[in-house]
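Troubleshooting log. The previous structure file for this entry was overwritten by mistake, so regenerating from the original sequence record. Sequence copied from the archived sheet and checked twice against the printout by T.R.
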Amino acid sequence: MTVTTTPTLEGRPIQEYLGIVTGEVIVGANLFRDLFANIRDIVGGRSGSYERILRDARQQAIEEIQAECGALGGNAVVGIDLDYEVIGDTGSMLMVSASGTAVRV
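Regenerated output below.
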């Protein structure tokens, strides 16, 4: 299934708009990952563990919109928007949300 942030697909005209599809993934922070990330903040460098969590959460959110699109009979999602939000009383959770328009091309 084609997924894109653009509103159209070059050379593939949209035959039907099927509606908005969304996917949300909420991941909790891990005490040890936080500890090592804080150490990295002090000494410098990238936090590979957080980058991996973000990448996995983003992929899961995209997979959710693909599944929702398929259930509607679509074969592409256009206009994808990705958002990241820290949630929870202590900011210990991260939400990754993806939305787009399911279409048939």
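The beta strands are 2-3, 16-28, 76-87, 93-104. Archived copy saved in two places this time.
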